[in-house]
């Protein structure tokens, strides 16, 4: 098969981890007889520096006309440390999600057998953890009206959800639960927030269409606790944008490193694949960032966007082999020999 893939490397460690995912994807294409044409495009601080805009129209055209998008990370300290900057890299990410209609962010959290002792959590607590967050990605407080009043002394961010937005995300959650252990947890703050009450009532009304799915409703603060206490008690969790952002970073600790967790952002017409981590600016250019989250995002791309599970499995097998052999970056080396970003990528590509 032939694929056009938009390639948005972004900032910080983005280009380094993307290079490894490209190398591994090309090895997969070679082994299985596919042809990939990569379509590089600017985003984030790199795009602001080049053209003054973090998600330029040209980048959108490339994404919208490709079969999938592979994304690294965006973000730069010069903007993080300047809250008043009028244009920010993160605005590009949000604009991209909105314009491409990427409303469902699939963020799995799972453990690797060879890494059980790398998590700060006790092995018996995390063993067997295999859960998936479905994070709503184009609504909520991220996209509500925001601003200042009282001469800048008061700031506000509105959180808004429509029933239709909740329904389309919850539908994906129910469908995903049906393919797994038929357990769905709706994470909200319905004891306080009106938007959460809309979430809860909408999901409750959908239960009758999926009688086999056992649905639980839990408050986000309690989930934050149970997630590290009994992570393997969860399966599919659906939640709104900000709660999903926070809980998935927390959950990444279960696997052993933030540098391991991939994601897929699904829209009606196109899907985008990206690690859940950011641009990790302190590691830029040092060849120390873990490329596995991005490489596993490429595995999700083969599996979900192209419906090629064998190709995805080839990548997952190579990652498992590298972890078992200790071919890992410093975040997982635990005092043992640490390999470089590029060396880990070379190993993975050679083991496809
Ligand atoms: N999707 C995205 O592009 C995205 C996501 C989160 C943050 N950001 C941006 O990234 C910048 C830095 O944010 P941050 O420091 O809060 O989050 P971050 O995810 O970049 O880094 C947080 C910590 O996670 C670890 N980490 C992250 N990626 C790793 C990797 N590949 N290998 C090993 N360890 C890794 C490091 O310990 C790092 O200090 C900010 O500008 C932020 O806005 C972008
Ligand atoms: C950089 C930021 C806008 C983004 C988010 O909050 O969605 C990031 O944290 C993520 O998880 O992809
Ligand atoms: Mg985040």
Automatic annotation (TrEMBL):
Keyword NAD appears in the UniProt entry: yes
Record GO biological process: L-leucine biosynthetic process
Compartment(s): Cytoplasm
Binding site for Mg(2+): 221, 245, 249
Residues marked Important for catalysis (site): 142, 189
EC number of this enzyme: 1.1.1.85
Binding positions for substrate per the UniProt entry: 97, 107, 135, 221
Keyword DNA-binding: no
Keywords: Amino-acid biosynthesis, Branched-chain amino acid biosynthesis, Cytoplasm, Leucine biosynthesis, Magnesium, Manganese, Metal-binding, NAD, Oxidoreductase
SUPFAM superfamilies on file: Isocitrate/Isopropylmalate dehydrogenase-like
Isopropylmalate dehydrogenase-like domain location: 4-348
Role noted for this protein: Catalyzes the oxidation of 3-carboxy-2-hydroxy-4-methylpentanoate (3-isopropylmalate) to 3-carboxy-4-methyl-2-oxopentanoate. The product decarboxylates to 4-methyl-2 oxopentanoate.
Listed name of the protein: 3-isopropylmalate dehydrogenase
């Amino acid at each position: 098969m032939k694929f056009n893939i938009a390639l948005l490397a972004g900032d910080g460690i983005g280009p380094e981890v993307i290079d490894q995912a490209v190398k591994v994807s090309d090895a997969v294409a070679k082994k299985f007889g596919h042809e990939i044409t990569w379509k590089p495009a600017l985003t984030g601080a790199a795009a602001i520096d080049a053209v003054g805009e973090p998600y330029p129209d040209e980048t959108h055209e490339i994404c919208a006309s490709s079969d999938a998008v592979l994304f690294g990370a965006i973000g730069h300290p010069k903007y993080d440390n300047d809250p008043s900057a009028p244009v920010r890299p993160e605005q590009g990410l949000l604009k991209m999600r909105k314009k491409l209609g990427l409303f469902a962010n699939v963020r799995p959290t799972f453990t690797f057998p060879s890494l059980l002792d790398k998590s700060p959590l006790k092995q018996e607590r995390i063993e067997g953890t295999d859960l998936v967050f479905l994070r709503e990605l184009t609504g909520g407080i991220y996209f509500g009206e925001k601003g200042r009043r009282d001469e800048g002394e008061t700031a506000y961010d509105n959180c808004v959800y429509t029933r239709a937005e909740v329904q389309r995300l919850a539908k994906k959650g129910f469908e995903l639960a049906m393919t797994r252990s038929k357990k769905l947890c709706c994470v909200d703050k319905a004891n306080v927030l009106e938007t959460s009450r809309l979430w809860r009532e909408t999901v409750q009304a959908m239960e009758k269409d999926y009688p086999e799915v056992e649905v639980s409703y839990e408050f986000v603060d309690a989930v934050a606790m149970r997630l590290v206490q009994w992570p393997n008690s969860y399966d599919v969790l659906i939640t709104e944008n900000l709660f999903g952002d926070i809980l998935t970073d927390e959950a990444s600790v279960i696997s052993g490193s933030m540098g391991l967790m991939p994601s897929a952002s699904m829209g009606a017409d196109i899907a985008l694949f990206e690690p859940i981590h950011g641009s990790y600016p302190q590691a830029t250019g040092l060849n120390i960032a873990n490329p596995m989250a991005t490489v596993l995002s490429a595995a999700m791309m083969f599996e979900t966007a192209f419906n090629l599970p064998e190709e995805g499995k080839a990548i997952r097998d190579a990652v498992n082999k590298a972890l078992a052999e200790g071919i890992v970056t410093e975040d997982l080396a635990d005092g043992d020999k640490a390999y470089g970003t590029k060396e880990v990528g070379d190993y993975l590509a050679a083991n496809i």
